[in-house]
Amino acid sequence: MGRRRSIYVGVLLASILFGSLGTVYARQEVRWARIDMLNTEVDDTVYLPSRTWLRAASLGYLPFASDLVFMSTHAYVIRHLYSDQIFRWLERYVDAAIDLDPDNPEIYYWASRVVRYGQIVDEAIILRSNAFAESAISRFPDDARFYEHLGFNKYFELRQIYTERERQLAAQLERQENPEERDLLLDRLTKTRLRRYEFEGSALQDYTVAAMLPSSRVDKLFLLNLYVKQDERAAAAEMVKAVYADAPASVREQFELRLKEIDQSELASQLSARQKQRESHMPYVPEDLYQMLGSSHESRVPADWNHLGQVYTQALDSLKQREAADGSVGTKGTSND
């Protein structure tokens, strides 16, 4: 009995030992494979049927077929995200999914973001990302997410890239003594600076459009600061006038302070006075609707309902006088005939 127990214990210990060694070896093998995948470009063969075949195979269920292609696109991106981070065929997958269901904005938005994942974000990557967002805007012009995406890419990515290039060219220009080389560097520096200005202005436009749309998540104070940084004070004042009505009370106070800082104290006083006027005349009406109704005295709800009856009586009297005048004209015309 004791001998049998010793054999069992020995077998158990041997199993534990070999199992531990196998686990360690398997983990090390996975680690080696992962290192190999990171250092090796995965060149895969992608086959997607033609547009006609995909539509025929969907049997009319185009959104469902688009979802299947979209799932394949996810699998493709995940496989390359943990290998070489090169999404060579991403556009082809996305175009196939969009062709089957062009009314799904999530495909565009997902593609515009995922193309930047897992790699060094350079100008080529940002331009690919912008291409997805720009194609989405042509289909969904009222979706604020795509304008925000473009504004972010242009201002915080492309602008930074061109700012660094501008700094490097300026440093080279200081060290260069050859007149011909200096002229070439100066020309490149000028073009780079103009390109940066173009991205800054375009980003400002994209952020402004996004801020005006109902589904916007753009911080209005952030947008105001962008205008001020670009020395667009008049445009900043117009932007505040456009978004002031929908802003919370705390943001309105910040708007008024910033307007005073950029020499727009009169506009800040007007906006504040209009808000107080609305609170005293029509506190139950939203600010944007109050702007359409106006702020004249006769648009207010009367404090005394007898006054409303007097207005109604005056309106009836006016109508009777008008009918009497019309009748007298008709009588005169008949008698002349």
Draw up the topology in text:
Elements (H helix, E strand, L loop, with lengths): L1 H38 L11 H7 L4 H20 L8 H11 L4 H10 L8 H17 L4 H32 L3 H34 L7 H10 L3 H11 L5 H13 L3 H17 L5 H7 L11 H32 L1
Helix pairs in contact: 3-4, 5-6, 6-7, 7-8, 8-9, 9-10, 11-12
Number of helices: 14
Averaging pLDDT over every residue, what do you get?
81
Q: Beta fraction of the residues?
A: under 5%
Structural class: mainly alpha
What is the share of helical residues? over 70%
Largest sheet: none
Tally of DSSP β-strands: 0
Task: Report the order of strands and helices.
Answer: HHHHHHHHHHHHHH
Rg, Å, rounded: 35 Å
> Which parts are unreliable, with pLDDT below 50 for 5 consecutive residues or more?
35-42, 296-300, 329-337
Coarse morphology:
extended
Terminal residue distance = 140 Å
What would you call the quaternary organization?
A: single chain
Word description of this protein:
- There is one protein chain.
- With 337 residues, the chain is mostly helical.
- It has a domain at 219-303.
- Helices cover 77% and strands 0% of the residues.
- The chain is built from 14 helices and no strands.
- The termini are far apart.
